[in-house]
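User: Fold this; tokens only.

Assistant: Input:
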Amino acid sequence: MQIVKTARALRKQISQWRLHGLTIAFVPTMGNLHAGHLSLVKKAQQLADKVVVSIFVNPLQFNDQSDLSAYPRTLKADTEQLIESQCDLLFTPNQQSIYPEGMDAQTKVFVPNMDDKLCGLHRQGHFDGVATIVLKLLNLVQADVAVFGEKDYQQLLLIKKMVTDLNLAVEIVGAPTCREPNGLAMSSRNQYLTDQQSHVAGELYTTMLSIVEQLVNGNKDFSLLCEQAKDRLMHFGFQPEYVDIRRDDDLELAISDDKEIRIFIAARLGQARLIDNLACNLA
């Protein structure tokens, strides 16, 4: 596996692959890799000849500086995992190379209809930072396809919209959420949980499954289902930020006639902010 730190070195290798007619898949990450990230790499390997992974902890998407400072940096372990996974190239730019004039002077990308719901509502400015860094990385890598996890489903839809709206020549592919044995969605933030909290955290998934069961059985009182879910989570020690039932394609609040819907949950447990979602087909 090659490791490059500069855009020049990255583009040199990309150009060589292109000269040989090879296709390229891209997996952007913030590091602290786990099995969920590696599943994205595996998916990328199925879609293209070469796979590029980036590791960059993007300060522009953090609205809490303490959260940014605490975010785990594990580059050595991440590199070892990527070598074992047979990744072709690891791109590890520093902040100066990504934001040479500083973040305040950086041109930012705003994707409409995302900052007024779910994580956009609770993390002001977060998705502007996500869209900006993803666009920069897509422009640097010039991949044929980029793979993102469905755990961050709102982020996935945001990136798909940005790519469509800006006519970018890359296909965005979503990959299923990887889960722990108790159903907890794999996340770098899970390491903030104590052993006891990790056990309890599986209740997020159980709660979503309960909502799906009631929906399938004909319960269309979405507001009541969400309030009951919040009560249940609080009983287990969570601090819910939101529980919503929304349309799968545009994230608008679901109504009784909708068939393709998705349950979204965000809640704090101890020091960790956990998010998850689950699709429900009522057709």
